Amino acid sequence: MAHERAGTTAQPQDLIDVDALVAAYFDTAPDPDDPGQKVAFGTSGHRGTSLNGSFNENHIAAITQAIVDYRNGQGIGGPLFLGRDTHALSGPAQDTALEVLAANGVHVLIDSRDRFTPTPALSHAILAHNRGRTNPAHHADGVVITPSHNPPQDGGFKYNPPHGGPADSDATGWIAGRANEYLSGGLAGVNRVPLKAAKSAETTDGYDFLDRYVGDLGNVIDLNVIRSAGVRIGADPMGGASVDYWAAIGERHGLDLTVVNDAVDPRWSFMTLDWDGKIRMDCSSPYAMASLISRVEDGAGFDIATGNDADADRHGIVTPDAGLMNPNHFLAVAIDYLYRNRPDWPQGAGVGKTLVSSSMIDRVAASLGRELVEVPVGFKWFVPGLLDGTGVFGGEESAGASFVRFDGSPWSTDKDGILLCLLASEIQAVTGSSPSDHYRGLTAEFGSPSYARIDAPATREQKASLAKLSAADVPATELAGEGITAKLTEAPGNGAAIGGLKVTTENAWFAARPSGTEDVYKIYAESFRGDEHLAQVQAEAKALVDSVIGG
Asked: Which of 44, 90, 148, 357 is flagged as catalytic?
């Protein structure tokens, strides 16, 4: 149920005290014996807030030294790209990281404009440096300091190894373990120099992330057709790291592009509140995107309007005829368009999706004659395919995706919200129809699915049981009146454990996964037989899972 003020502009009582937040970053020392204050890498790095001892100076010093140790152990000797988003804690965390990296003699490349670095621009930089280099001693990697779309009080710290994408669990597990050892040891063994010395160190150099990224876009998006078609674009950086990028894209490539809000405010006072009444830069949420949606509805004159979260790894697409597109809908449209309009892509390359993304993608892939590659949740699973050309597109239901260049070579191996937003304009330019109109065409051909995610309560023990399920643990043969066609605890695309359960029928499916941060498990479900059938699937899914894990 949505908060009563969801979708309305934030008020003074909703805003953080930036000075207090930053002071707590330096003044609060985390308790290494408190599980809530340890370093813990989720699917997108370590996240927390200085206000409760989960994201503080000691954390960042310890994690950075652990990354240095990891690099040394892997023989990684090239530069480390270091970028940050616009969250209040990102600047202090970047300073701390730089102090440790400089003390360890690591060649660090930071933004030469002293501005913000979107996650995809950092991934692009790593791949550009490493192209053609086979010796790990010359390979680059990177750190992007961002909690993505999380609220203003949060901080985040994410490591991208030389493949340019999110680090896998082996790497993050090792880094987190070493960092917690440093925390427990009072930071003994963590090397560090003062910030002034770090900035002036011979090993610290500038890198123009914006110029390299924006200048290369013509090799992955048809900017010429967007320009010649006169597509009118409204881009909302939502106060995030893409703020300088959108203006540069419009100017550099001669597009009819308006940056609808170029404000950067670490409080995000201009945001509309998300579904739960919190400030959250989620460009897939109609509540967080309410101001852009209203602008389009009020006749702003944009053919395509877009939004990005704070590190620009997610995309939101707004069209005049349909408002904010559901991320699953746009992914299906993007796949259908790209595989028909990239003739130099490898013909054998599959369609990558996470197992909780819409089955509309399955039907689109089948119509294209392409193999569906279904992987667990987490963009890291798409990295190998994007690198070697066996997977030219990877997308998540949470509005994260990326794809390869026109020639099939890698563009980014992390999610790229800017890229997907520009793709919406290319679709409009080439076809003369909006992406939402294209989705209506897909539903006319394949049916119209109903999709939703709900949370169900679960204890820590029950969540652990869910994560370790095997298909044999699930005796059910029917789901919502249809015979079960598959019970999956491993992803069919790569055989990796999904950390939960997915059950499919001819016209519906559900997936259940434990939350990593709350005492709930998440039920994703979809039905091609309408909302009532979806509700039946959800109810039976909860009953089935609870019966297995003891709910």
From this structure: 148
